[in-house]
Task: structure prediction
Amino acid sequence: MAGCGRVALFRGQHSGDFTDVEVTPRLVRAALTKARRSGAYWRLEPAERALLVLASRLRRIRSPVLREALLAVLQRVWPQKALVIRAYELGL
Result:
């Protein structure tokens, strides 16, 4: 399959010298639900709220800039999950 080099990687799987940790729309939807239930949603900036809502509607998140922005929001909403993702990135 052409162009499937990085797409075929699983969350946390090593490929050469980098670790591809995927931020999925399912994870974003779970974070959005958790934020709404805990009240953390209203403590976010309006742009961060919009980012969570709109990213949860995507089919796939490919942009590294969007991924980093979502990880920053995830750190505020769901710090435990953000810590696990950062650990995968470091290879722990």
Observations:
- The first helix runs from residue 25 to 38.
- Residues 71 and 82 are 7 Å apart (CA to CA).
- Helices lie at 25-38, 46-55, 64-77, 79-90.
